[in-house]
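Hi C.,

You asked whether I'd gotten around to modeling the 140-residue construct. I have! Everything is below, sequence then structure, no commentary in between.
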Amino acid sequence: LHRDVRQRIQQRIAQAFGISSSLLYLTKPTFFSRINNTEAKTTHDEYWHPHIDKVTYGSFDYTSLLYLSDYSEDFGGGRFVFMDTDSNKTVEPQAGRVSFFTSGSENLHRVEKVRWGTRYAITISFTCNPDHSIGDPVLT
């Protein structure tokens, strides 16, 4: 399932940015996130700080998020916010919605603190550098 979803997202990113999907490679970390209103235990748990994925993770060139729960039904807060100089742009998560963007300084972003409920998402990111590529996760 992960491989199929990853391939579909990879193809859409390539199409949207006018590049060949064969030049995009899955990179780490690819992760499942479960965010609720419990107190952060480590600085990595403090998801609400503005950040740039390329700076945070190094290998990211394109970031995608597949939402698995619905804003205002399953959780409050937790919207994804692109922080622009003119005005912020907000994405309200909906189960099945995919958002993707370039991972550089042009896309400073944060996630609002979750006030109630649980926000689920999968982050699948891509690099253009084959040296930073990873294989699809497998069950052992």
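If it helps when you're writing up: Strands lie at 25-35, 62-67, 75-77, 80-82, 89-91, 98-102, 109-111, 114-117, 119-127.

Thanks,
B.
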